[in-house]
Amino acid sequence: MKVIKFGGSSLASAEQLKKVLEIVKSDSNRRFVVVSAPGKRSSEDTKVTDALIKYYKHYTANQDIVIDQEWIIDRYKSIIDGLALSSTILDEISTAIKHLATFPKENNDFLYDTFLAAGEDNNAKLIAEYFRKEGLNARYIHPKQAGLIVTSEPGNARILPSSYDKLEALREQDEILIIPGFFGVTIDNQICTFSRGGSDITGSIIAAGVKADLYENFTDVDGIFAAHPGVVEQPHSIKELTYREMRELAYAGFSVLHDEALIPAYRGKIPLVIKNTNNPSHPGTRIVLEHSGTSSPVVGISGDDDFVSINISKYLMNREVGFGRKVLQILEDLNIRFEHMPTGIDDMSIVLRGRELTPIKEQEILTQLRHLEVDELSIERDLSIIMIVGENMKSHVGVTATATRSLSEAGINLMMISQGSSEVSVMFVVKTESEKKAIRALYDAFFKN
Ligand code: ASP
């Protein structure tokens, strides 16, 4: 039994939906179909979800909403026409979109979420209708009926663990269920969405809930590339990744799947595959608990910018009891998250995401650190983190040597190096101006040479 999720670009037009139908039809194990709202047809296009945000803003600001309503309804209409569906479904969608502008504006914490969820909800109805017309035994199901009950955190819902029992009962259905992604219902019956891009989360929850054998996530790329295609020319797509490796790569810039989407599938021990709607015969990337055979020591290389390092030096730091705690307490009091903390004998660097360090917080940190009588103190911006990732690194000698040799040959100055004890990744900090060059050098070293 498989749960299959399609992203917005796979559902953006009638042509795309025809591909989706073929994919679902080609495997009778594909029993649960989770869908996004229609996405962009081209880079200049607008996602239906973004159009709904505009509609919400105009509605709550008491501005004209007719243009917004018409644009959204027209978007569905062009898909409905392209698939030669009956006008009944168009009427139903049109009524639902207009109905949004009847909900109370005041004291309604869930109004924004209700608007946004309409993109997925109406698309699921449309797709169920299309599948039925094409002879599939398919049915739309609302997350409430499915049992997808979430916390009352608008825009950031989380699944309530009690949902899983009800979701498991869906296994007994013999129809193909079409489930709108991105939102659930609170105990008080309010529509509440996950964070943006959250249809991936729904797919993962349903896969864990129905104890699927596989969660297939269809997007518009041939899986996860071993490096960013905007940096490395035509990188290969990774055949198999562990959840752990995926998490490490996602940390530093890989964003094929929503971060939170991995958790339910991981906990439910459900393998996941990322595939391409436009190239379904490509095997894509499988995300598994453990590698099935031997895999190369490095599976992927990621990089992310906007990091800052707070560099502290104090003579005999190592002998001072509690120094580290005092430094971290300053960060905690200012509600600042830190990412890494490489140390030397008398120095300590704290690496943060740049957005954490507002100018006011920066001043405050400097003042408070000076109270700790440090000898040197500096803040360095424009840093990038580069990670080479692979669980099999631990059984290979010389991985870091290969990496550092290639970086030195490319003339790149390494500012910090860090490897966690689990040896799933090695992290290098470089100046952002050399980030791309460094990623290319590493890609060549591990995958080309
Ligand atoms: N439609 C929602 C968004 O654009 C959720 C999704 O597509 O996953 O964020």
TrEMBL record:
One Pfam family in the UniProt entry: AA_kinase
SUPFAM superfamilies linked: ACT-like (SSF55021), Carbamate kinase-like (SSF53633)
Pathway the protein acts in: Amino-acid biosynthesis; L-threonine biosynthesis; L-threonine from L-aspartate: step 1/5; Amino-acid biosynthesis; L-methionine biosynthesis via de novo pathway; L-homoserine from L-aspartate: step 1/3; Amino-acid biosynthesis; L-lysine biosynthesis via DAP pathway; (S)-tetrahydrodipicolinate from L-aspartate: step 1/4
Record keywords, A-Z: Amino-acid biosynthesis, ATP-binding, Diaminopimelate biosynthesis, Kinase, Lysine biosynthesis, Nucleotide-binding, Transferase
Record Gene3D superfamilies: Acetylglutamate kinase-like, VC0802-like
Gene Ontology molecular function: aspartate kinase activity
Keyword ATP-binding listed: yes
Species for this entry: Streptococcus caledonicus
Similarity field: Belongs to the aspartokinase family.
Keyword Nucleus listed: no
Enzyme Commission number(s) of this protein: 2.7.2.4
Name of the protein this chain belongs to: Aspartokinase
UniProt domain ACT: residue ranges: 388-449
Top-tier EC class: transferase
Catalysis performed (reactions): L-aspartate + ATP = 4-phospho-L-aspartate + ADP
Function: Catalyzes the phosphorylation of the beta-carboxyl group of aspartic acid with ATP to yield 4-phospho-L-aspartate, which is involved in the branched biosynthetic pathway leading to the biosynthesis of amino acids threonine, isoleucine and methionine.
